[in-house]
Amino acid sequence: MEDFVKRWLLDPTVGKLIATAVGILIIFVIVRFLQRSLTRYVKDSDTRYRVRKFVNFIGYLTGMLFLGIIFSDRLGKLTVAFGVAGAGIAFALQEVIASIAGWVAVSLGRFYRTGDRIQLGGTKGDVIDIGLLRTTLMECGEWVRGDLYNGRIVRVANSFVFKEPVYNYSADFPFLWDEIIVPVRFGSDPKTAREILQSIAHELLGEYAARSKTAWKQVVEKYMIYEAGVEPTVTVSVDENWMEFTLRYIVDYKSRRSTKDQLFSRILEAFEETDGRVRIASTSMDIDLVHTPPFDLRLTSKTVKPDALSEKEDSL
To answer: Which of 91, 115, 135 is the last residue in one of the domains?
Structure first.
């Protein structure tokens, strides 16, 4: 028994396995210590996330190099075995390999980064983590309207960047064009309605327009794209029901819901202050009674004789 234990302890393979376990444990402890100590002094959440990810990546890389050094004398013998098993592994893990390739594409091609609002694989939300195989999103929408969080955390395979379009709401231009439609009744003053909408838009959205000009110039310089107006604009169209005023404006991609609330609140208040010169139209039918037409009502009575009535009953 003692000889067996001695031979087992003196076996080079056993020694390498023990050294591997001890080395991996030391690397793991160092990585955790660096993550906690470095991120403690970083206040910005985005920088803290990137530091933690970078330290984690360095830990993985160090572990792989350590394993390569420990088993360097056996790698040549395993080359043939790796070649035979490689085809089968590649076929069985093709989705995993595609996800890893997607991670490389996202990292190098800057499809998106943490903090961006994207739509990937049919799911829309904010990117909160980019892993080797999956991207984690805080989902928006579904049963919640207005691009607000619904509370679900969704993990989407990175391979979707090769299969479906990636919609990025905040990549090079962190603003969106949005619009609201205000129906106004016929008989209202269209000039006053336009002035009210234009004034409220410049008051509430002027800051976005000023900030977006610089960002839009950078987009025009980077891509083959035409100039577009970033100032709030009001257009009007007429149909058989009402006059339809459309307010188009630039807004931060995370503030669409709150901005619409502010706009509609101010517009309703301003329309009320016009004392009926501008009135909101309704989808319900509004009937204006202008005058009452003359009625010509004539009542006639006919006397029925009892004999005639009895004859009619007999015939029945």
So the answer is: 91
Q: In the chain, where does DSSP find H-type helix?
A: 2-10, 12-39, 45-70, 72-75, 79-92, 94-109, 160-163, 190-222, 256-272, 306-315
State how far the Cα of 1 lies from the Cα of 24, in Å rounded to an integer.
30
DSSP-derived pairing of the beta strands 123-130 and 134-140? antiparallel
Domain that holds residue 154: 97-168
Compute the average pLDDT of residues 180-200: 92
Average pLDDT over residues 287-310: 53
Same domain, 181 and 237: yes
User: In this structure, is residue 149 part of a structural domain?
Assistant: yes
Q: How far is CA 285 from CA 12, 81, 188, in A?
A: 91, 80, 17
Together in a domain, 32 and 113? no
Residue 147: strand pairing partners? none
Q: Does residue 211 sit in the same domain as residue 259?
A: yes
Residue 308 falls within a domain, yes or no? no
The residue with greater pLDDT, 37 or 87, is 37
- Would you place residue 184 in the very low, low, confident or very high pLDDT band (cuts 50, 70, 90)? very high
CB within 8 Å of 220: residues ≥ 6 apart: 226, 227
What's the pLDDT band for 245 if we cut at 50, 70, 90? very high
Q: Which residue has the tokens 């100590």?
A: 37
Q: What does the alpha-carbon distance between residue 111 and residue 109 come to, in Å, rounded to a whole number?
A: 6
Residue 167: half-sphere exposure toward Cβ, Cα within 13 Å: 10
Q: Does residue 224 sit within a domain?
A: yes
Higher pLDDT, 285 or 10: 10
Residue 251, φ and ψ in degrees, nearest 5? -145, 150
Q: What are the structure tokens assigned to 112, written together?
A: 């998106």
Q: For 121-144, write each residue's pLDDT tens digit.
A: 788 999 998 888 889 999 988 888
| Per-residue confidence (pLDDT) for residue 182, from 0 to 100 | 92
Amino acid at site 48 = R
101 plus 87 within the same structural domain: no
Report the domain count for the chain.
Answer: 3
